[in-house]
Known about the structure:
Elements (H helix, E strand, L loop, with lengths): L8 H5 L3 H26 L14 H8 L7 E3 L5 H6 L4 H8 L33 H15 L5 E6 L6 H13 L3 E7 L2 E2 L2 E2 L19 E6 L3 H16 L5 E6 L17 H8 L3 H11 L5 H24 L15
Parallel strand pairs: 1-2, 2-3, 3-7, 6-7
Antiparallel strand pairs: 4-5
Amino acid sequence: MAKFKTSGSKDLARHDADFLIGLYRDMLLTRVTDDRIEALYKQGKLVAGCYSSRGQEGCSIGSTAALRPGDVIGPMIRNLGSLLRHGLPVTMVLRNYLGRATAPTKGRDGTSHFGSLDHGIIGPISMLGALIPVCAGAALAFRMRGEPRVAMTWIGDGGSNVGDFHEGLNFAGVLRLPFVLVLENNKYAYSTPIEYQTAAKDFACRAQGYGIEGDAVDGNDVLAVYQVVKEAVDRARAGGGPTLIEADTMRMRGHAIHDDAKYVPRGLFELWEKRDPILLFRDRLRKAGLLDKARDEAIVAEVRARVDEATEDALAQPLPDPAGETGEVYA
């Protein structure tokens, strides 16, 4: 089985304190924004789906932090942190969920199914796996233009069993494209556990079938995720081809807010609650003397104020005019 890489105290010491605090702040921002979206849903202010990334913040923040300006991402429904880390303002996320006219989809979608090319974000596609060949295509465009840019997307354990996963990775492998795929093994494809999805011992081994690099990392260790993905991104940028990275994590909510996840053994949730990526990293920063109680409280207050301000802004935005509902939909 794959050995999931972790980071230690020596790894922590190699990085700038502001960078490390930034990882913590961005994971916290993701969690608070996620909780706000859930609250708005329960208040009846959202009419579409609500998909939580709780427990997977380390995957999104750590992986996206490895990119440079100009690189592109194709986030999935649990990669809220990737949107935020890549520069999308919180208010634009909330405007889209609230169906506002000033949102990226101008009120035509009420979830995370949107992109922003100005921020280097390719919009997700409901058919899981479809973004893999799309992002591989973006990587091909970079190659043809001679641009030192990288494309990265994510997939879940369940989505790795569809045709687009295999076709996209094979395409990227044959052409040695600057492409990175992070497979978030969060233990369930909706309600299907991984033992009913594949007979393989792990997912990282699938890289061998395409002749590309494969790696595995503890997805709840944000610094380890950053380091493993950074190595893959640097290799891709230098012409070393694509990498498949399996990130071991856990989905701490049901598939969506309407799913109570009763099919998940309670003991499994209890086990992973002790491995919360935010709390684990906070404790490491405190032990290293990089985050005292006062600074932590200030960061928490700052993040909450930022989300409160973004919420007020989003709620104040106008709803779309029904008369223009077919605009930008049909030619």
